[in-house]
Amino acid sequence: MTDVKIARALLSVSDKSGLVELGVALARHGVELVSTGGTARTLRNAGLAVVDVSELTGFPEMMDGRVKTLHPKVHGGLLAVRDDPEHEAAMIAHGIGAIDLVVVNLYPFAATVGRGAGREEIIENIDIGGPSMVRSAAKNHAYVAIVTDPADYEALIGELDSSGGMTSLDLRRRLAAKAFAATAAYDSAISQWFAFADQGSAFPDSLTLAMSRGADLRYGENPHQQAALYLPQGPHGRGIAQSEQVQGKALSYNNYNDADAAIELVSEFRDGDPACVIVKHANPCGVAVAATLADAYEAAFACDSVSAFGGIIAVNRALDRASAEAMTRIFTEVIIAPDADEEARAVFAEKKNLRLLLTGELPDPARPGLTMKTIAGGWLVQSRDSGRVGRDDLKVVTRRRPTDQELSDCLFAWTVAKHVKSNAIVYAKGGATAGIGAGQMNRLESARIAAWKAKDAAQKAGWPEPRTIGSAVASDAFFPFADGLLAAAEAGATAVIQPGGSIRDEEVISAADEAGLAMIFTGMRHFRH
């Protein structure tokens, strides 16, 4: 069966937007309107004739509306195969009339959870009859059209107007696919609430996720790969995916990935002094805090001015003219900030290809949640790395204790190292990174690469010595041997912060004492793969 004439429609919606316009259009095509509760009142108040579901079924609504559409005269009218003689005979024998269109959106379960309602109210907002009607209509889409989203009213009305009140099989198939996705997402939200909020399970037996496509991307990591951005349905925190793009061309897969790395790191400083993070290929290449955003940018840029070209910048304050002018001196792909004043926006507007993203707020680095990674044949799921250490958590393990400045530099370097791909080594001095070594197969090479970068930065800037002289160095995991620590000492580091926990800790501590270093153990590791 292809085109189907709409003679009877059943409407029951919690979201009343566009409802009257749809009702008027259906009435214009002579469609009988069947409805319930508030939907029926809205239609009647607009002057439309409406048949109550209870009239259709001959059975009153009961149990506070829990039982109203769960009836053979509803589901028989939805599920009947119209050209099957046995189905037709059953409809005649039991007085079941066909229903050609169902317009349903479900009880606002996610919104109820999101506003902090109590358990009883949340349970009452689990829709039963709605999903049943949606699934019945979607299964029988050869004969029945199902609309679950007010955004589809326009397409439905357009087709009715162009075809004399008919729906095409193509439209019904598309609406059915969307309907099944809607009920799947709805059940996913309910199952997640039961698992995480109600039952307190960190890793439930079944983990279901519901996401909506936010945008098609030009391609993935490489041009031969396809990609899209998906957004979570239901209550969720804000992040780079919810930022407002003020200007610039559409973001790519790699832009999103790098921008996420940048915002996660700069969020560690969201309550502190002005901070700037520059990211390239998901690794920070420069991080600094300073009295102004412009100063923070200059200090972060000085750490690795080569890698900063074409990078991603994130800051923890509203952008002003001075910071905007500093950031636009070289080519930058994306700039991320909570806000930007009019003068800063005017500076950025002169760089048409630069993407400016405004987040409104920064994510909480201590927020709970899960992270997921695909592997061949499955997923790896873990809690977010929201671990943080403060001064009271630190253990000095060397004879020499760090100075106050060394301690501050250690904590700064440690914060940055958490966001560097392992094996990670970060040198820091005076609230700025001096050198960063990332993603090496051994810690010694990361220490050497970070020191080499610091020397290169000093030569380019014309400094008398690299900023690793008198710096603190952070290692995301313990030093398995003393060689990486000694490489840091050779680069000029005077203080070290690391998790500890190696079977050779005593050997490493002795080496630090011999070199005159102050070393701190955190007891916490920050691998990032």
Kindly describe this structure.
The protein is α/β, with parallel strands linked by helices and 529 residues long. It folds into three domains: 4-198, Methylglyoxal synthase-like domain (Rossmann fold, 3-Layer(aba) Sandwich), CATH 3.40.50.1380; 238-358, Cytidine Deaminase, domain 2; 387-521, AICAR transformylase, duplication domain (Cytidine Deaminase, domain 2). The strands form six sheets. The protein has a six-stranded mixed beta sheet. Strands 18-23-22-21-19-20 form a six-stranded mixed beta sheet. Strand 13 (312-315), helix 14 and strand 14 form a beta-alpha-beta unit. Helix 12 (293-303) runs parallel beside helix 14 (321-327) and helix 18 (482-490) packs parallel to helix 19 (505-514). The longest helix has 30 residues, at 169-198. The chain is elongated, with a radius of gyration of 31 Å. The relative contact order is 0.07.
Task: Give the helices and strands, then pairings.
Blueprint: E1 4-5, E2 8-13, H1 19-28, E3 32-35, H2 37-45, E4 51-52, H3 53-57, H4 72-79, H5 85-93, E5 101-105, H6 109-114, H7 119-124, H8 129-139, E6 145-147, H9 153-163, E7 166-167, H10 169-198, E8 211-217, E9 227-232, E10 244-247, H11 253-266, E11 275-280, E12 283-289, H12 293-303, H13 305-308, E13 312-315, H14 321-327, E14 334-337, H15 342-349, E15 355-358, E16 370-375, E17 378-383, E18 395-396, H16 404-417, E19 425-429, E20 432-437, H17 443-461, E21 472-475, H18 482-490, E22 495-498, H19 505-514, E23 518-521
Parallel strand pairs: 2-3, 2-5, 3-4, 5-6, 13-14, 14-15, 21-22, 22-23
Antiparallel strand pairs: 1-7, 8-9, 10-15, 11-12, 11-13, 16-17, 18-23, 19-20, 19-21
Helix pairs in contact: 4-8, 8-10, 12-14, 14-15, 17-18, 18-19
